Amino acid sequence: MMSAADLPQTIPVFPLPGALMLPRARLPLHLFEPRYLQMLDDTLKTSHRLIGMVQPYDAPGGGEKKLHTIGCAGRLTQFSETEDGRYMITLSGMSRFRIQQEVTGFTPYRRCDVSWDGFGADLGPAEVDKGFDRDTFLDLLARYFDALSLSTDWESLKEADDELLINSLSMLCPFDPEEKQALLEAPSLSTRRETIVTLLEFALRAGSDEERMQ
Q: What mean pLDDT do residues 108-122 have?
């Protein structure tokens, strides 16, 4: 288990729209751009093996995309190379961070000085959502999945721990990047669950409104 003392001040960041990393969750990624292959090579040479996942957004007037202030770092725990030189990697979520400033020069990928302050619980044990009404939540989720023609393993969802269930849905559901950012910034597991409920209900209402207009 990584401790706060092991967290570096500067980390590489991977700005990927819609890709959400959360503490104690796993995120598979496919790397093929030369700059990110260089990032992988450099990360493997470090002791911490951390890569920061950050949601980018369009800058006024165009140019390089801006980065949201809060991201989440994952530790490189698995990687394999394909025959054509691409890599499949897995990041294991460690802790959220706050970007202090972007570091310029020397690498083709982006790097940032970050602060880990305020996210100490991310390095601790899994959270429990004491106010979680699982049956009501899964009923709402079933209506959402049905509306979007999505499928899942419902038995696994029923048996999953609170944090695994809520964080997995946060990462996998087709929410837009700004909604994913709101889920990332949720201060607690219960707040993240409440945010998911709001997003599911909004999507269902929007779908019903579209049907009535047709």
A: 96
